[in-house]
Structure prediction request, 317 residues.
Amino acid sequence: MNKVKLTIDNIEVEVDEGTTILNAARQIGGNIVPPAMCYYSSLKGSGGKCRTCLVKVAAGSSKDPRPMPKLVASCSTPVQEGMIVENTVNPEVLDTRKSIVEFLLINHPLDCPVCDQAGECDLQNLSYEHGLEQTRFEFEKRTFDVIDIGDKIKLHMNRCIMCYRCVYTANQITDGRVHGVMNRGDHSEISTYIEQAIDNDFSGNVIDVCPVGALTDRTFRFKSRVWFTNPQNAHRDCPTCCGKVVLWLSGDDILRVNARKNHDNEVEEFICNTCRFDKKSLSDWEIEGPTDIDRHSVISQNHYELPVIDQPKKLTP
Ligand code: SF4
Ligand code: FES
Prediction:
Protein backbone atom coordinates (compact mmCIF):
# COMPACT_ATOMS: atom_id res chain seq x y z
CA MET A 1 0.00 0.00 0.00
CA ASN A 2 1.41 3.43 -0.97
CA LYS A 3 2.02 5.83 1.87
CA VAL A 4 0.99 9.48 1.99
CA LYS A 5 2.45 12.20 4.22
CA LEU A 6 0.34 15.09 5.45
CA THR A 7 0.19 17.58 8.30
CA ILE A 8 -2.70 17.93 10.73
CA ASP A 9 -2.53 20.84 13.19
CA ASN A 10 1.21 21.11 12.48
CA ILE A 11 1.82 17.43 13.27
CA GLU A 12 3.19 15.33 10.44
CA VAL A 13 1.76 11.85 9.93
CA GLU A 14 2.25 9.13 7.34
CA VAL A 15 -0.76 6.98 6.48
CA ASP A 16 -1.95 4.54 3.81
CA GLU A 17 -3.21 6.05 0.58
CA GLY A 18 -7.02 6.33 0.65
CA THR A 19 -7.21 6.98 4.41
CA THR A 20 -9.63 9.74 5.35
CA ILE A 21 -8.44 12.86 7.16
CA LEU A 22 -10.40 11.77 10.26
CA ASN A 23 -8.69 8.38 10.42
CA ALA A 24 -5.30 9.99 9.81
CA ALA A 25 -6.00 12.30 12.78
CA ARG A 26 -7.04 9.27 14.86
CA GLN A 27 -3.65 7.76 14.16
CA ILE A 28 -2.07 10.84 15.77
CA GLY A 29 -4.64 10.84 18.59
CA GLY A 30 -5.22 13.42 21.32
CA ASN A 31 -7.34 16.53 21.07
CA ILE A 32 -6.54 17.22 17.41
CA VAL A 33 -8.97 14.43 16.43
CA PRO A 34 -12.17 16.00 15.05
CA PRO A 35 -15.40 14.89 16.78
CA ALA A 36 -17.60 12.49 14.81
CA MET A 37 -21.29 12.03 15.49
CA CYS A 38 -22.26 9.95 12.45
CA TYR A 39 -19.13 8.26 11.11
CA TYR A 40 -18.52 4.77 12.52
CA SER A 41 -15.50 2.90 11.21
CA SER A 42 -17.13 -0.52 11.20
CA LEU A 43 -20.23 0.64 9.32
CA LYS A 44 -19.92 0.95 5.54
CA GLY A 45 -21.36 4.18 4.13
CA SER A 46 -21.50 5.96 7.48
CA GLY A 47 -20.33 9.56 7.76
CA GLY A 48 -21.13 12.75 5.88
CA LYS A 49 -24.38 13.45 7.74
CA CYS A 50 -23.65 15.49 10.87
CA ARG A 51 -20.84 17.85 9.81
CA THR A 52 -19.23 17.92 13.27
CA CYS A 53 -15.97 16.65 11.77
CA LEU A 54 -15.46 19.64 9.46
CA VAL A 55 -11.85 20.81 9.05
CA LYS A 56 -9.99 23.32 6.93
CA VAL A 57 -7.74 22.00 4.18
CA ALA A 58 -5.19 24.83 3.97
CA ALA A 59 -3.27 23.10 1.18
CA GLY A 60 -4.85 20.39 -1.00
CA SER A 61 -1.63 18.54 -1.89
CA SER A 62 1.97 19.19 -2.80
CA LYS A 63 1.02 19.12 -6.51
CA ASP A 64 -1.82 21.59 -6.02
CA PRO A 65 -1.22 23.50 -2.78
CA ARG A 66 -4.31 25.70 -3.12
CA PRO A 67 -6.61 25.68 -0.07
CA MET A 68 -9.98 23.99 -0.49
CA PRO A 69 -12.58 26.77 -0.75
CA LYS A 70 -14.92 25.41 1.95
CA LEU A 71 -14.49 23.43 5.13
CA VAL A 72 -14.64 19.71 4.37
CA ALA A 73 -16.03 16.69 6.23
CA SER A 74 -12.89 14.95 7.48
CA CYS A 75 -14.69 11.59 7.75
CA SER A 76 -15.22 11.38 4.02
CA THR A 77 -12.29 13.33 2.52
CA PRO A 78 -9.28 11.21 1.57
CA VAL A 79 -5.78 12.49 2.34
CA GLN A 80 -3.34 13.63 -0.36
CA GLU A 81 0.45 13.80 -0.35
CA GLY A 82 1.52 17.13 1.14
CA MET A 83 -1.97 18.07 2.38
CA ILE A 84 -2.11 20.58 5.23
CA VAL A 85 -5.14 20.22 7.50
CA GLU A 86 -6.20 22.59 10.26
CA ASN A 87 -8.57 21.61 13.01
CA THR A 88 -8.06 23.04 16.50
CA VAL A 89 -5.58 25.66 15.26
CA ASN A 90 -8.12 27.29 12.98
CA PRO A 91 -10.67 29.66 14.61
CA GLU A 92 -13.00 29.34 11.59
CA VAL A 93 -13.28 25.59 12.18
CA LEU A 94 -13.99 26.03 15.90
CA ASP A 95 -16.54 28.73 15.19
CA THR A 96 -18.30 26.56 12.61
CA ARG A 97 -18.31 23.62 15.03
CA LYS A 98 -20.16 25.84 17.51
CA SER A 99 -22.79 26.51 14.87
CA ILE A 100 -23.08 22.80 14.06
CA VAL A 101 -23.68 22.01 17.73
CA GLU A 102 -26.29 24.76 17.89
CA PHE A 103 -27.90 23.26 14.79
CA LEU A 104 -27.92 19.73 16.23
CA LEU A 105 -29.50 21.05 19.41
CA ILE A 106 -32.33 22.80 17.55
CA ASN A 107 -34.52 19.76 17.92
CA HIS A 108 -32.63 17.85 20.58
CA PRO A 109 -34.24 18.31 24.02
CA LEU A 110 -31.93 19.22 26.91
CA ASP A 111 -33.27 16.40 29.04
CA CYS A 112 -29.87 15.10 30.14
CA PRO A 113 -30.99 15.00 33.80
CA VAL A 114 -33.50 12.25 32.95
CA CYS A 115 -31.80 10.67 29.95
CA ASP A 116 -30.12 7.27 30.32
CA GLN A 117 -27.37 8.29 27.92
CA ALA A 118 -26.18 11.14 30.17
CA GLY A 119 -22.55 10.66 31.06
CA GLU A 120 -21.77 8.75 27.89
CA CYS A 121 -23.52 10.90 25.30
CA ASP A 122 -21.37 12.21 22.46
CA LEU A 123 -23.66 15.18 21.93
CA GLN A 124 -23.55 16.11 25.62
CA ASN A 125 -19.74 16.09 25.52
CA LEU A 126 -19.69 18.02 22.28
CA SER A 127 -22.04 20.66 23.66
CA TYR A 128 -19.90 21.13 26.77
CA GLU A 129 -16.88 21.76 24.56
CA HIS A 130 -18.39 23.72 21.73
CA GLY A 131 -21.92 24.66 22.67
CA LEU A 132 -23.45 28.00 23.51
CA GLU A 133 -25.06 28.68 26.86
CA GLN A 134 -28.28 29.82 25.29
CA THR A 135 -30.31 28.87 22.29
CA ARG A 136 -31.36 31.38 19.65
CA PHE A 137 -34.06 29.04 18.37
CA GLU A 138 -37.46 30.52 19.05
CA PHE A 139 -39.74 27.90 17.54
CA GLU A 140 -41.17 24.76 19.03
CA LYS A 141 -38.96 21.70 18.83
CA ARG A 142 -40.43 18.83 16.87
CA THR A 143 -41.80 16.15 19.16
CA PHE A 144 -42.70 12.49 18.83
CA ASP A 145 -44.22 9.88 21.09
CA VAL A 146 -41.77 7.58 22.81
CA ILE A 147 -42.22 4.11 21.35
CA ASP A 148 -41.08 0.61 22.15
CA ILE A 149 -39.20 -1.21 19.46
CA GLY A 150 -39.75 -4.72 20.68
CA ASP A 151 -39.56 -5.55 24.36
CA LYS A 152 -35.91 -4.51 24.84
CA ILE A 153 -35.40 -1.20 23.00
CA LYS A 154 -36.99 2.20 23.53
CA LEU A 155 -36.98 4.86 20.81
CA HIS A 156 -37.03 8.52 21.88
CA MET A 157 -37.27 10.09 18.45
CA ASN A 158 -37.11 13.59 20.02
CA ARG A 159 -33.45 12.97 20.81
CA CYS A 160 -32.47 11.54 17.44
CA ILE A 161 -29.96 13.55 15.39
CA MET A 162 -30.47 11.50 12.22
CA CYS A 163 -26.96 10.16 12.08
CA TYR A 164 -28.15 6.94 10.37
CA ARG A 165 -25.79 4.75 12.42
CA CYS A 166 -28.62 2.54 13.67
CA VAL A 167 -29.92 2.13 10.13
CA TYR A 168 -26.52 1.00 8.86
CA THR A 169 -26.13 -1.29 11.87
CA ALA A 170 -29.50 -2.89 11.25
CA ASN A 171 -28.74 -3.16 7.55
CA GLN A 172 -25.26 -4.54 7.82
CA ILE A 173 -25.23 -6.79 10.86
CA THR A 174 -28.77 -8.08 11.23
CA ASP A 175 -30.99 -10.18 8.98
CA GLY A 176 -34.28 -8.91 7.65
CA ARG A 177 -33.98 -5.26 8.66
CA VAL A 178 -37.33 -3.71 9.48
CA HIS A 179 -36.23 -0.27 10.59
CA GLY A 180 -35.04 2.75 8.68
CA VAL A 181 -35.64 6.44 7.96
CA MET A 182 -39.08 7.54 6.85
CA ASN A 183 -40.01 10.88 5.27
CA ARG A 184 -37.76 13.75 4.22
CA GLY A 185 -36.10 16.86 5.63
CA ASP A 186 -37.56 18.17 8.86
CA HIS A 187 -40.08 15.32 8.87
CA SER A 188 -37.47 12.54 8.75
CA GLU A 189 -37.77 9.99 11.49
CA ILE A 190 -36.41 6.61 12.47
CA SER A 191 -39.21 4.12 12.24
CA THR A 192 -39.75 0.41 12.27
CA TYR A 193 -42.36 0.59 9.54
CA ILE A 194 -45.59 0.35 11.49
CA GLU A 195 -43.63 -0.13 14.71
CA GLN A 196 -42.71 -3.72 14.09
CA ALA A 197 -40.42 -5.08 16.74
CA ILE A 198 -36.83 -5.48 15.72
CA ASP A 199 -36.47 -9.13 16.42
CA ASN A 200 -33.18 -10.73 15.57
CA ASP A 201 -30.00 -11.79 17.32
CA PHE A 202 -28.00 -8.58 16.86
CA SER A 203 -30.65 -5.84 17.01
CA GLY A 204 -29.48 -4.61 20.43
CA ASN A 205 -26.36 -3.15 18.83
CA VAL A 206 -28.37 -0.19 17.59
CA ILE A 207 -28.37 0.95 21.23
CA ASP A 208 -24.57 1.00 21.38
CA VAL A 209 -24.03 2.87 18.13
CA CYS A 210 -26.58 5.61 18.87
CA PRO A 211 -24.50 8.69 19.81
CA VAL A 212 -27.35 10.18 21.85
CA GLY A 213 -30.12 8.78 24.04
CA ALA A 214 -32.56 8.11 21.20
CA LEU A 215 -32.23 4.32 21.43
CA THR A 216 -31.98 3.01 24.97
CA ASP A 217 -31.95 -0.37 26.66
CA ARG A 218 -35.35 -1.04 28.29
CA THR A 219 -33.75 -3.47 30.74
CA PHE A 220 -31.51 -0.66 32.10
CA ARG A 221 -33.76 2.40 31.86
CA PHE A 222 -33.84 4.53 35.00
CA LYS A 223 -31.99 1.91 37.08
CA SER A 224 -28.93 4.06 37.73
CA ARG A 225 -26.83 6.92 36.42
CA VAL A 226 -23.87 5.35 34.62
CA TRP A 227 -21.34 7.14 36.80
CA PHE A 228 -22.68 5.32 39.88
CA THR A 229 -22.01 1.94 38.28
CA ASN A 230 -18.89 -0.16 38.24
CA PRO A 231 -17.87 -1.17 34.69
CA GLN A 232 -16.03 -4.50 34.42
CA ASN A 233 -14.75 -6.32 31.35
CA ALA A 234 -16.10 -9.86 31.16
CA HIS A 235 -16.53 -12.67 28.68
CA ARG A 236 -18.42 -15.91 28.19
CA ASP A 237 -18.27 -18.71 25.71
CA CYS A 238 -21.05 -17.59 23.40
CA PRO A 239 -22.04 -19.63 20.33
CA THR A 240 -23.47 -16.57 18.55
CA CYS A 241 -21.03 -13.69 19.13
CA CYS A 242 -17.56 -12.94 20.51
CA GLY A 243 -18.99 -12.93 24.06
CA LYS A 244 -16.69 -10.03 25.09
CA VAL A 245 -18.65 -7.38 26.95
CA VAL A 246 -18.68 -4.72 29.63
CA LEU A 247 -20.83 -5.44 32.69
CA TRP A 248 -22.14 -2.35 34.45
CA LEU A 249 -22.44 -3.46 38.05
CA SER A 250 -24.04 -2.17 41.18
CA GLY A 251 -22.71 -4.40 43.91
CA ASP A 252 -23.30 -7.91 42.58
CA ASP A 253 -26.19 -6.86 40.34
CA ILE A 254 -25.59 -6.61 36.62
CA LEU A 255 -27.57 -3.54 35.62
CA ARG A 256 -26.52 -3.49 31.99
CA VAL A 257 -24.42 -5.41 29.49
CA ASN A 258 -23.00 -3.76 26.41
CA ALA A 259 -20.27 -4.21 23.81
CA ARG A 260 -16.75 -3.00 24.53
CA LYS A 261 -15.86 0.34 22.99
CA ASN A 262 -12.51 1.76 21.92
CA HIS A 263 -11.20 5.23 22.71
CA ASP A 264 -13.11 6.65 19.73
CA ASN A 265 -16.26 5.42 21.51
CA GLU A 266 -16.89 2.83 18.79
CA VAL A 267 -17.88 -0.79 19.42
CA GLU A 268 -14.90 -3.14 19.08
CA GLU A 269 -16.98 -6.25 18.34
CA PHE A 270 -20.75 -6.42 18.11
CA ILE A 271 -22.51 -8.69 20.61
CA CYS A 272 -25.68 -10.77 20.43
CA ASN A 273 -28.95 -10.11 22.23
CA THR A 274 -28.56 -13.14 24.48
CA CYS A 275 -25.34 -11.75 25.98
CA ARG A 276 -26.80 -8.25 26.15
CA PHE A 277 -30.26 -8.87 27.55
CA ASP A 278 -30.45 -12.37 28.99
CA LYS A 279 -27.22 -12.95 30.88
CA LYS A 280 -27.70 -10.81 33.96
CA SER A 281 -26.20 -13.07 36.58
CA LEU A 282 -22.55 -12.96 37.65
CA SER A 283 -22.32 -16.75 37.28
CA ASP A 284 -22.88 -16.31 33.51
CA TRP A 285 -19.63 -14.40 33.14
CA GLU A 286 -15.93 -14.61 33.71
CA ILE A 287 -14.83 -11.22 34.99
CA GLU A 288 -11.52 -9.93 33.61
CA GLY A 289 -11.15 -6.69 35.57
CA PRO A 290 -12.17 -3.02 35.58
CA THR A 291 -12.94 -1.45 32.22
CA ASP A 292 -10.43 1.20 31.29
CA ILE A 293 -12.46 4.21 30.27
CA ASP A 294 -10.13 6.78 28.79
CA ARG A 295 -12.77 8.59 26.81
CA HIS A 296 -13.75 12.13 27.51
CA SER A 297 -16.57 11.18 29.86
CA VAL A 298 -17.86 11.78 33.33
CA ILE A 299 -17.65 7.99 33.88
CA SER A 300 -13.88 8.20 33.93
CA GLN A 301 -14.00 10.76 36.75
CA ASN A 302 -14.12 8.05 39.41
CA HIS A 303 -11.12 6.23 38.01
CA TYR A 304 -8.54 7.96 40.12
CA GLU A 305 -4.93 7.36 39.36
CA LEU A 306 -2.30 7.97 41.97
CA PRO A 307 -0.18 10.98 41.04
CA VAL A 308 3.50 10.32 40.60
CA ILE A 309 5.12 12.36 43.33
CA ASP A 310 8.83 13.01 43.21
CA GLN A 311 10.61 11.74 46.28
CA PRO A 312 12.05 14.69 48.26
CA LYS A 313 15.74 15.00 47.56
CA LYS A 314 18.03 14.35 50.47
CA LEU A 315 20.03 17.36 51.44
CA THR A 316 23.69 16.59 51.75
CA PRO A 317 25.33 18.47 54.60
S1 SF4 B 1 -31.79 6.80 16.63
FE1 SF4 B 1 -29.67 7.23 17.31
S2 SF4 B 1 -28.39 6.01 15.93
FE2 SF4 B 1 -30.41 6.13 14.97
S3 SF4 B 1 -30.27 7.90 13.57
FE3 SF4 B 1 -31.12 8.63 15.53
S4 SF4 B 1 -29.33 9.39 16.68
FE4 SF4 B 1 -28.56 8.07 15.02
S1 FES C 1 -18.67 12.45 11.37
FE1 FES C 1 -18.19 13.43 9.50
S2 FES C 1 -20.06 14.28 8.90
FE2 FES C 1 -20.55 13.21 10.72
About this structure: The chain has six helices and 14 strands. Residues 160-166, 190, 209-212, 214-215 surround iron/sulfur cluster (ligand 1) (CB under 6 Å). The radius of gyration is 21 Å. Residues 112-301 form a domain with the Alpha-Beta Plaits fold (CATH 3.30.70.20).
